[in-house]
Amino acid sequence: MSDKILYSYTGIFDTPDEIIHAAEKTSEYGFKKYDVHTPYPLHGMNKAMKLPPSKLGYVALVVGLSGALAALLLMFWMSAVDYPIIIGGKPFFSFPAYVPVMFEVTVLSASIATVLTMLFIFFKLPNNAHPLHDTDYMKKVSSNKYGISIQAEDEKFNEEQVKIFLTGLGAKEITAVYYDNDEINHKHKILEPKFIGFLLFTALLTSGVSYFVLNKLLYMPPFDWMMEQDKLNPQATSTVFADGFGMREPVEGTISRGHLPYLFKGQPEAAEINLANPLPFTKPVLEMGQKKFDTFCSPCHGYHGEGDSRLRGQFPNPPSLHSEKIRNWKDGRIFHVITDGQNVIPSYSSQMTTEERWAVVNYIRVLQRALNAKESDLK
Amino acid sequence: MSSSHNVEYQKKELPAKIRTIGLVLFIIGLIGVTASYFTDSSRSAFNNIIMLSFLTSVGLGSLFLVAVEYVAGAVWSTPFRRIPEFLSTILLVLPVVVIPLLFKLGDIFHWMHPEVVEADKVLKGKAPYLNVEFFMVRVVLFILLWILFYYFITRTSKKQDSTFDPSLTKKNIKLSAAFIPVFGITISFFAFDWLMSLEPHWFSTIFGVYYFSGSILAAFAAVTFVVVMLNENGYLVKGLTNDHYYSLGAFMFAFTNFWAYIAFSQFLLIWYANLPEETFWFLQRWEGNWIYYTIGLIFVRFAIPYFGLLSQPSKMEPKRLKIMSVWLLFAHWYDLYWLAMPNYSKDGILFSWIEIAFPVLSVGIVILLFVQLSKKNNLVAIGDPKLKRGIDFRL
Fold first, then answer.
1. B200, B123 in Cβ contact below 8 A?
2. Which residues of A252-269 are buried (b: 16+ CB within 10 A; e: fewer)?
3. Residue A362 near residue A277 (C-beta atoms within 8 A)
């Protein structure tokens, strides 16, 4: 016995009333380091043991509020800053739409944090060894008895007195519990093969089940009913139309909103004579022109229109936009090249609106003027 | 009168002071309400609707709490079940509260004018439901049903005080089970009739639940306030603990959240869909100085009680419970005002002695009723077989 270290003295009771009474007396006596074990939670035990309110609630509060804030920032960043898309005609920053997300994240983060804190901080996982494990006492209190265990660490602990005290309470089977030497020697058995094996097994099981559900189960009836609906998916063939195309062309003679048919297809000269640039040289127009030029034209023509293609010879290098010829072209002619294409340069009419194309023309004029400034510009 | 079930309960008269307070409030309120009807009868009628909805909330909500206790076999609330039983007596007053409204129906409800309905496609479509005859049938039928259930359920409960007959509990379970679906349907249609149809073009399918959530909260608040007051002064059975208080506090907290959940759901769907025939109701409450009132609603009805009742100790501290329950009753009135008043005063918030007279009268009525009932009856259901277990209830 001398080489064993005492952990606690335990006593067993038969009824919930007795154990509550015992807990009351134990806390009254002044013991601090003791614990009560019952097969199920007992009403009124907190009070009997004079336990202070649990601090776990604060974890839930702080993490929950952080979750709400994180969700708000996430939604704000995604939908108002990083990738603003208009949804349902709402402003990019639409608080009401974020509330459900914030609510979910609050609940999720608070509950996960509460459980993890409970397991890892309050229950001290992964330390899964405890002197009371595998004792006769633990077997009883986890089936139909109620027990109390007063620890040797307690300041008021005195072996003889504790025995007398427990007897006085009416406890049965008063026994001493010792630390297990093995347990003391390696407390954190986190690398134990059994534990690792269990982790592996769980990982395999969850990934296997997820794989099965996502890749197989969802494609079996009745789970695939959602996917197989009586409607045409984009790009799918159709048995309704004679030509077999699921996607239809617009009705002949109609034009889509915001688009005017181009009247000078293949007629650059006519375009040059007949088209007038409707846009003024203002800052917003030029900014739009620059943005579009840098996006659509600069890969081949270079940021300054000098023909310094960044395509490393994979496409014929275009001529400079500063040539005498182009400087003398009317705006309508440049517009025509953008709209209708010229030899290898394709049409940009589907990428840019009419207005944006004119803005690019204005921007090209600015670039030209910058390299070929007039006398008067220097004044 | 100490019962044989070894429960300590001594029936005591409530102090005369309470009756005096009730009487004073009642008289002031009655004078105010009468004067207001002579000053501005339409505005008074809208206030009267708020009062009707408020009293229905507390009275009918209390009866619902009683019924739920029976059906669920709950024991924790048995020691003070008499309190909601008493409060449900408010249902007897409803016919009187409705009467002045019957003279003003045309002023309140747009859809009651045949020529208006004739010229309005939407109202024409709703006419099979929204017409004077059917409306009157519902008003009478609902109040009648409520009073009948009130009468039978409370009578059975009182009878048990002297007979100690456990089979009476069985009988009340059956009555309660019949009452609950009736309650669910009638309270929804009551809300549609009196509050939603003030703006007959507007509709919200969740509106009944909205009124239900507020009503149960109001009933819980009223019960909590009375229980804490009576218990602190020793009028209830001995042995009520923090666990009982905590349960009441937790329910107030839970229904505060439930109300916010429902209110937000209603708003979110309408906001998202953005259909003009639905959004205008909110826009009306967002115009002029109504916007402050609407934003205030979030704080008055949700944020303040939420944080006031969030922590565990605050749900059992008597002082906090009293403050929060009175606050929640105020918040319910505030909410009902928000539902009804913007339909009358589109330009902005109305507040004067008229708006004070109606709540004063309501409180006076409830106090007088309570005092009257407590004279003849026990404040505790001493014959209930669940009483002892209810007192021993621990969380």
1. yes
2. eeeeeeeeeebebeeeee
3. yes
Q: Which tokens hold the place of B321? A: 């419970």
Check: CB of residue B140 under 8 Å from CB of residue B77: no
Its pTM surpasses 0.80:
no
Cα gap B274→B266, rounded to integer Å: 12
Residue B344 has which token pair?
A: 């009358």
At A113, list the tokens. 């944090």
Question: In chain A, whose CA is at the least distance from the CA of B307?
Answer: A61
Residues in A closer than 8 angstroms to B294, CB to CB, are none
Which structural domains are found in chain A, ordered by start? 1-191 (no CATH), 268-374 (1.10.760.10)
What single-letter amino acid sits at B305?
Answer: P
Half-sphere exposure of B202 (CA within 13 A, CB side): 25
Interface test with A, best of B244, B394, B395 (most A CBs within 10 A): B394
Q: Are B272 and A89 a contacting pair at CB < 8 A? A: no
CA angle B226, B231, B237 (to 5 degrees): 115
ipTM over 0.90: no
CB contact under 8 A, A96 and B312: no
Which among B272, B274, B312 has CB closest to A57? B312
Model pLDDT for residues A343-373, shown as the tens digit of each residue? 888 889 888 888 999 999 999 999 998 888 8
Residues of chain A with pLDDT under 70: 1-3, 128, 182-190, 258, 379
DSSP bridge partners of B163: none
C-beta of residue A105 within 8 angstroms of C-beta of residue A68:
yes
List residues in chain B touching A: CB distance below 8 A. Answer: 243, 264, 267-268, 271-272, 274, 310-313, 394-395
For residue A337, what are the contacts with CB-CB under 8 A and spacing of at least 6?
Answer: A268, A345
Tokens at B114, concatenated = 């045949």
Q: How does pLDDT run across B187-236, given as a tens digit for each residue? A: 999 999 999 999 999 999 999 999 999 999 999 999 999 999 999 998 99
- What's the CA gap between A303 and A289, in Å, rounded? 12
State the Cα–Cα distance between residues A108 and A114, nearest whole angstrom: 10
> Residues of A with CB below 8 A from B267's CB?
96
In angstroms, the CA A327 to CA A366 distance is 11
Q: Smallest CA–CA separation between A43 and chain B, in Å?
A: 5
Residues in A touching B389 (Cβ below 8 Å): none
Which residues in chain A are contacts of B271 at CB distance < 8 A? 96
Q: CB-based burial of residue A248 (10 Å sphere; 0-12 exposed, 13-18 middle, 19+ buried)?
A: exposed
Spans of all domains in chain B: 16-199+206-391
